[in-house]
Design a protein that fits this description.
73% helix
Length: 78
């Protein structure tokens, strides 16, 4: 994953809570903020789904093509 430095201004009380959470979880402030952003934008859910994926790319494409064909058939029938 490519990283990019970004500067943001955050509420001082929020940063105090971020720092406290980081200490409790033995993470850096940066890691706590990144985890929170991943949850907010939904990347954590995608990461979870990909980690449980045991299909090869070919198998996944076969399922996707089959589902697309079934959807097209349904639309033609209606």
């Amino acid at each position: 994953m490519t990283r990019r430095t970004t500067t943001v201004s955050l509420d001082e009380k929020l940063m105090t809570e971020v720092h406290a959470a980081a200490q409790r979880s033995r993470l850096s402030d940066e890691e706590v903020i990144e985890q929170a952003l991943r949850r907010f934008v939904g990347l954590e859910v995608l990461d979870e789904l990909w980690s449980r994926n045991h299909l090869s790319e070919a198998e996944a494409m076969e399922i996707a093509a089959s589902e697309l064909q079934a959807l097209r058939s349904e639309h033609k029938a209606s």
